[in-house]
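Q&A log
Question type: sequence-to-structure
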Amino acid sequence: MRRSLQHRQALAIAVLAIERLPGPLKSASDQSDMKALLDEMIDNNAELAHYARAARIAVIGVEQQAISARSHPTIGNTRV
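Response status: OK
Response body:
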């Protein structure tokens, strides 16, 4: 079943937010599970890029043009 737009947006933000947590507060297993779920929910690279950009803006507060969704260490490397 395809998840709603809000589910995909929230999941992308959560993955990036976990990445930014300091050492002992970061849950690698939760982040890994969320990445896998996000990968299942997103259909293509363009959609992934959209959610990665939106998550960066929501979590960091700025758009980083130099970082593509595919090169992003958290969200961009979810697909094989």
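Response note: Residues 65-70 have pLDDT under 50 and may be disordered.
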